[in-house]
């Protein structure tokens, strides 16, 4: 436990908020690496549009990781940005799609965003009881992630509003459905 935290929080609450943020930090580090992997491995007729759509997402998510890490430090804890920390905090499988079409990657990425956004919303609910400053940070980040997911889903949606990967439970199945 830290020996200090931000004013207005107990050391215990500061440590609890930092623990929740560490999980988000690992998720963001994994997400920006996954997005870059997709950027490098997307092929097909929609290659350039998806390739160029992904890079701004990478940069923003990297910034989210930095903001979360700095908040952890302000709370008196040590942010962990190593591959080992990602593995330790991972509650999800490693991204499983290699070189594939834009549609396949977007189908799989939609599921990745589902997981990150769902976990962020859980963290928002939990941290909201302890620290409105951290809650605000996570709310803003989650709103942007939801916008990114909308960009992805716009490529997967048909005129009836149905996503091509709607029934998929795994990235591989989502990729297959979206192809």
TrEMBL record:
InterPro entries: DPS_DNA-bd, DPS_DNA-bd_CS, Ferritin-like, Ferritin-like_SF, Ferritin_DPS_dom. Signal peptide: none annotated. Gene3D superfamilies: 1.20.1260.10. Residues 20-159 form the Ferritin/DPS domain. Pfam families: Ferritin. Belongs to the Dps family. This is DNA starvation/stationary phase protection protein.
């Amino acid at each position: 436990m830290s020996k200090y935290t931000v004013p207005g929080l107990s050391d215990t609450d500061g440590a609890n908020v930092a623990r929740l943020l560490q999980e988000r930090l690992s998720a963001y580090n994994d997400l920006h690496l996954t997005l870059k992997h997709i950027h490098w491995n997307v092929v097909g007729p929609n290659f350039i549009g998806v390739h160029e759509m992904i890079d701004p997402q990478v940069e923003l998510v990297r910034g989210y990781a930095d903001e979360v890490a700095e908040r952890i430090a302000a709370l008196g804890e040590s942010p962990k940005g190593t591959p080992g920390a990602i593995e330790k905090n991972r509650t999800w499988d490693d991204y499983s799609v290699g070189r594939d079409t834009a549609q396949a990657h977007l189908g799989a990425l939609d599921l990745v965003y589902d997981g990150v956004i769902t976990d962020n919303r859980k963290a928002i609910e939990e941290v909201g009881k302890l620290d409105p400053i951290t809650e605000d940070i996570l709310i803003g980040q989650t709103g942007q992630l939801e916008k990114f997911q909308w960009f992805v889903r716009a490529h997967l949606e048909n005129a009836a509003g149905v996503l091509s990967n709607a029934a998929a439970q795994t990235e591989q199945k989502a990729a297959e459905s979206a192809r």
